[in-house]
Amino acid sequence: MNLLAWIVLGLIAGAIAKAIYPGAQGGGILSTMILGIVGAFIGGTLATFLETGALQLTAASLSIPGIFIAVLGALVAIWGWYMINRRAY
What we know:
By secondary structure, the chain is mainly α. It has helices at residues 3-20, 29-52, 64-85. The longest helix has 24 residues, at 29-52. It is globular and about 35 Å long. The termini are far apart.
């Protein structure tokens, strides 16, 4: 997938994931795009692992199922970022 498609997929998946995830995440369009691209890789890798049993670094494609997988991956990325950066009281 070319760079422009990754950016578009990242914007779509990141925006949908930020809208779904409860609470305020902060960040601008760049962080949303990076979150979506990371989510596309997380989701694509997990989908490939569940389908084939092989752990390969792949990204989701720019399609309806690819966007769904990228949004799920972005939700995992948001949760992971929250767990790393949360404050202990």
